[in-house]
Amino acid sequence: MSDMEDDARDLLVRTLMTVSLGSLWLLINSTFGLMFGWFFFDVVPTLGNYIFYAWFLLSLGALVWYFIRLWKKKFPIT
């Protein structure tokens, strides 16, 4: 095993999970929104725009809920 303390390891894991999941969420939403053109609409929104914005809001809510749940836990006391 490693000589890293448990609370330092827990902090590192939480930080890496936050950065990696946030980056993945941004990558997915920028791919579908900007590259496929569902973020913008010409005159009226299409079905793809509605699906994209519904996905965006639901996934943002789930991501924020997960981050709050992840960071609300107490660090292990050794």
Structural features, described:
The chain is mostly helical. The chain has one domain. The chain is 72% helix and 0% strand. The protein has two helices and no strands. It has helices spanning 6-35, 47-72. The longest helix has 30 residues, at 6-35. The model has no long low-confidence stretch (mean pLDDT 88). Keywords: Membrane, Transmembrane, Transmembrane helix. The chain crosses the membrane at residues 12-41, 47-68.
* Share in helix: over 70%
Major sheet size, sense and barrel closure: none
Regions with pLDDT < 50 over 5+ consecutive residues? Answer: none
What value does the Rg take, in angstroms?
18 Å
Distance between the termini: 17 Å
The SS-based structural class is mainly alpha
SSE sequence, one letter per element:
HH
- Please tell me the total number of domains: 1
Measured by DSSP, the beta-strand proportion falls in under 5%
The residue-averaged pLDDT reads 88
| Oligomeric organization of the protein chains | single chain
Keywords: Membrane, Transmembrane, Transmembrane helix
Transmembrane segments: 12-41, 47-68
Topology:
Blueprint: H1 6-35, H2 47-72
Task: Give a quick rundown of the structure.
The chain is mostly helical and 78 residues long. The protein has helices at residues 6-35, 47-72. It has one domain.
Main attributes of the structure:
mainly alpha, 2 helices, 0% strand
